[in-house]
Amino acid sequence: MTAAVRRRESWVTWVSETAAPESAAPPASGPPGNRLLQALRGRRPDRTPVWLMRQAGRYLPEYRTLRARAGDFLTLCKTPELACEATLQPLRRFPLDAAILFSDILTIPDAMGLELSIIEGRGPRLGRVLRSEADVRALRVPEPESELAYVGETLRRVREALDPEVALIGFAGSPWTLACYMVQGQGDAEFALPRGMCYQQPAVLHLLLERLTCAVAGCLAAQAAAGAQALMLFDTWGGLLPGAAYREFSLRYMARVIERLRGSETAAHCPVILFSKGAGAHLEQLADCGCDALSLDWSMDLSVARRRVGDKVALQGNLDPLALCAPPELLRREVARILASHGAGGGHIFNLGHGVRPDTDPDAVAVLVDAVHEFSAQLPDQLQPPA
Ligand code: CP3
After folding, report:
1. What is the pLDDT of residues 228-265, one digit of tens each?
2. Which residues line ligand 1 (CB under 6 A)?
3. H or E segment to which residue 90 belongs
């Protein structure tokens, strides 16, 4: 065991046993600024920035009330006043370092004419699905300023209402993950139809992924123009593909989206966070695809990920969302474990390995955020990430 690892482990024990908040953190030094953006540039702010995937949503009673008022999920997304309110709700409860636009990855297929509906308790459904080359050729790339104008309007409202120290994140699905829904027509554990297409109709799939690359890059560039300060790509279903197919159908198109953003007027310098669930095997290639940060699922220790990618990218994650159902002391210990696993080097953003589950107790989220603040402010400066 190296000295660094030994120091880290003793620190975990120490922070986990430091129970009383009043015994805690030394005062932060200097103005905090926008912690998330600092960490995305590889720095270590006065404390580790924290936000959570799906931080807005059904686990919050105020979200359930708002959704009932809207009538349905899509009306909520498409009404800027209500979507702005949903975005801000978690920020009113918890001192988070980022807000994420309240919307959905499937608004792009919806704007491409595939007729999205979200059925209570059953998830998303598309009224039209893609099966043939003619289906794909009939798709048009949406104009973000008109067909997705509600997204820009929501972002402008949120940015105006937000504290300048809180970053605003825009997002889209990766081309592959959007293709999964557009071919399958609904959520699925296996997505056998789009995966089968890799073998049966690869040219049609590539055509679809090219169109989606244009659509996703265009929508993200418009989000940056409307006030998003970081952009996240959700590749939730990338991990379903075997290695070579992952590179051909998922990774390649995410790299192309990023390349287009870098060449755009509005998003050339906007940091990009990439979440490719179940794609730990491809970490080195992901770190080389042009993104600024990788958001990790819970399957890999941050220390291992950091060793594999060096300081090329920031790392976001990666607490198991189920840890939020643990008793508070155990949850605090898990938070400490994640912080210690990354170590005191720069470029860590605390998050979950996937979204907050609807059955989560909001009080557990408060415990998590407090623990990140308390422990990361104490993280000894001399502690180095493992060599
Ligand atoms: O993170 C946030 O707080 C921002 C909002 C957000 C939503 N969806 C709201 C939502 C984000 C970033 C998403 C992304 C999204 N949507 C992904 C990628 C991330 C992930 O979770 O893997 C995917 C695959 C989707 C597709 C989607 N939309 C699914 C599978 C579902 C059903 C989920 C469920 O739990 O029923 C949706 C609907 C959806 N999107 C809800 C919310 C709050 C629930 C809708 C409701 O009933 O109120």
Report:
1. 999 999 999 999 999 999 999 999 999 999 999 999 99
2. 53-58, 67, 73, 100, 102, 104-106, 118, 123-124, 171, 187, 234, 236, 355, 358
3. helix 80-93
Which residue is associated with the tokens 């170590």? Answer: 343
**Interacting residues of 71 by C-beta distance below 8 A, sequence separation 6+:** none
Residue reference for tokens 């790392």: 315
Contact 386, 2 (CB under 8 A): yes
> Residue ranges of the domains in the chain?
1-55+317-387, 59-93+101-295
User: Atom 47 in ligand 1: which residue has the minimum CA distance?
Assistant: 120
| Ligand 1 pocket mutation pick from 52, 91, 105, 191 by most atoms within 8 angstroms of CB | 105
- The per-residue pLDDT for range 154-198, each reduced to its tens digit, is 999 999 999 999 999 999 999 999 999 999 999 999 999 999 999
What confidence tens digit (pLDDT) does each residue in 131-148 have? 999 999 999 999 999 999
- 3-state secondary structure at position 265: coil
Q: What is the architecture of the domain spanning 59-93+101-295?
A: Alpha-Beta Barrel (3.20)
Could you tell which of 51, 52, 54, 275 is best to mutate to test the pocket of ligand 1, judged by most ligand atoms within 8 Å of the CB?
54
Contact between residue 297 and residue 255 where contact means Cβ atoms under 8 Å apart: no
Q: What is the pTM of this model?
A: 0.91
| Residue predicted with more confidence, 379 or 122 | 122
Closest-CA residue, ligand 1 atom 32, reads 123
Residue 346: phi and psi, rounded to 5, are -75, 175
Distance 16 CA to ligand 1 centre (A): 33
Q: Taking 50 as the threshold, does the pLDDT of residue 21 lie above it?
A: no
